[in-house]
Amino acid sequence: MRLLVTFFIFLIAISSVGQKKYPTKDFRNPLDIPPILAGTFGELRNNHFHAGIDIKTQRKEGLNVYAVADGYVSRIKVALWGYGKVIYVDHPNGYTSVYAHLSKFGNGIEEYVKDIQYKKQRYETGNIFPKKGEIPVKKGQIIAYSGSTGGFVAPHLHFEIRDTKTEKIINPFLFGIKVKDTIPPKIRGLLVYPLSDSSRVNQKNQKSLLAFKKVKPNLYTTNRITAKGPIGFAINVYDKLNKAHNKNGVYSISMKVNGHKVYHHNLETFSFAESKFINLLIDYSHYAEYKKRYQRTHLVKGNQLDIYKDLLNNGVITIKEGYNYTVEIIISDFSKNRTTIRIPVKGVKNNRIFTQKKDTTAYKITTSKFHKWTQKGVTIAFPKHTFYEDVYLDFRVDSSIAKIHQPTIPLNKSFTLTFDVTKYTEKEKEQLYIANINNKKYPSYQNTRKKKDKFFTTTKTLGAYTLLKDTIKPSIYLKNFKDKQWITKLNKIIVKIADKGTGIKSYKATLDGEWILMEYNLKKKQIVYQFKDKKLVGAKHQLVVEVEDNVGNTNTLHATFYKKE
């Protein structure tokens, strides 16, 4: 009897493995309005998964943001890009809540941060780590106000929940945050791939787009395809939630062959370290060319994502001559709304007439080796494992433009690109920089490091690069008052700053000779000073604003105004 009980307990333990339970009643909503989402957890973004949920704030800034549970502030950061103004709260249950794109922090926290900004004389703070328990918060306490900081983003609250120890990000829906969703996912496209030299799909050895039709609600089918050898699929899908028009990500994708599951992934949790492997989940080259993300239902070499379950042969389907197959791909959202597409497949004899010619060049990358090549004063250097697999690269320099393949291959690491600049004068070197010109209309400044005879940069994007010149200094002008004006009724100063070339590197403002904090709004191209930060002495005041771009062009604004306390 004791052995039977022990065996029964063992079975229960085995069945519970991988079925992580999360507290569903510990956390309240971070806002006091019904949650309507602009973005879901795990959505496919450029080079990463979306790490939280984006809660709409009715197109407003300044809504109260509440601590979702008791805890203490463990980290704060103010940045121009990324999360903008963000606050992290550690909770006793082992989780951390994150609140991003804020307009300002709550009482006490705002003053704490401004004190650090004034000591550093910088708007951006870097990571601030208060001591454990130094800033305690209670569930329902206002800890911040919603905003749109962190780049060119619309007003919303980005909210995350993380495991405090591992910092793995976890889907907030698993903690009881509910959003109404009765709409099944939508399918926009389906690709099929021959996965070996001898494989064929419809007698071709190249990927194909498959047409499909609706059979009944939430069920689609394709025409029958013929195939031989290992094949795979990729699907382009999105999900919509009630009361929102946004096209969001889906929660899970599964694939069955003749009723047997061979593939499954879901967006329960992931780590920041593995997020870059999203470029191996999707068909990266297809996205680079057509800007449409197709998620593969088979694993490719180098993919280290930990989101997969129930994989059989890594999702690769081997089609045998004379056999019939029914492939089903099932797409689900978190609310378990499902959409299915069926692909009938017939195994046929291999036809070797249509074979795609392989690309070869003089620049072969063996991923396990370091590679360095120079051509016409341009050097490219690839560390080991920059690429996920061995490839042949195109590399040529024409009319001072370096063309390093096409931006259709995802990179695991950055490579170094170096330009010889010995032919330029010292004055010319000051204004030159390395630019990515994949978009010829909008060249992109690359962080250019300069030595006497060389300029170099590191990047994870292949494509076209060149040296460009920036001779235009940044622009600065007063927004809400004029020089020598009385502004007694104003509570803030607004100054517009912009740069047409390499972009603004830094700015500095002083009032009556003392440094002042001017908050930079990237979207509005303006910096703002609040008069409540500093008590004015006298009526006449001098404002000086200095702005520098990324090649060292500078501009300075001097203004006088009159204001009494």
Features:
single chain, 565 residues, mainly beta, 13-stranded mixed sheet, twelve-stranded antiparallel sheet, 5 helices, 8% helix, globular, disordered N terminus
Unreliable runs:
1-18
What would you call the structural class? Answer: mainly beta
Radius of gyration: 28 Å
Question: What's the pLDDT, averaged over the residues?
Answer: 94
What best-fitting shape do the alpha-carbon axes yield?
globular
How many angstroms separate the termini? 86 Å
How would a crystallographer describe the biggest sheet?
13 strands, mixed
The quaternary organization reads as: single chain
In total, the number of strands is: 48
Roughly what fraction of the amino acids lie in strands? 35-45%
Helix content: under 10%
Number of helices: 5
Give a description of the structure.
The chain is mostly beta strands and 565 residues long. It contains 5 helices and 48 strands. Strands 14, 15, 16, 17, 18, 19, 20, 21, 23, 24, 25, 26 and 27 form a 13-stranded mixed sheet that branches. Strands 1, 4, 5, 6, 7, 8, 9, 10, 11, 12, 13 and 22 form a 12-stranded antiparallel sheet that branches. A 5-stranded antiparallel sheet has the order 29-30-34-38-37, with no helix packed on it. A hairpin with a 7-residue loop joins strand 35 and strand 36 (444-445). The longest helix has 15 residues, at 2-16. It is globular, with a radius of gyration of 28 Å. The termini are far apart.
